[in-house]
Amino acid sequence: MVILGPVRVLPGKLSVSRTFGDCTAKMEKYGGNPRGVIVNPDVFKFKPDSNTDFLLMGSDGVFDKMESLEVSKYFWSECRAMTNQSTDATFEHVSDCCGKGTDRVLRASMEKESMDNVSVVVISY
Question: With contact defined as beta carbons under 8 Å apart, do 38 and 31 qualify?
Fold first, then answer.
């Protein structure tokens, strides 16, 4: 079986992240399954260490076409390109790195024909 595009929640027609409020997917009286998609998020704690440069969070539209390592490679390719052009490690450089790296990840998601919305947030340490 070949599945194209993001996983949809049946009997609703929405992608997983938007199904939280989809009554046809959640309510039994409409043929839905109240246990199909839960609203309780997975919460992870981690303590950044000296090897942590950035925290990148992306929507399911980014990760439905790429694995975490691939996203990281796209992001870092832009930062490395900027570093090769300048030895300046100022705030502006870090800010530009975050902006250009984020833009590269978003473009890669669209180039890979993501079927969902794409959003990326980067936090610099």
Answer: no
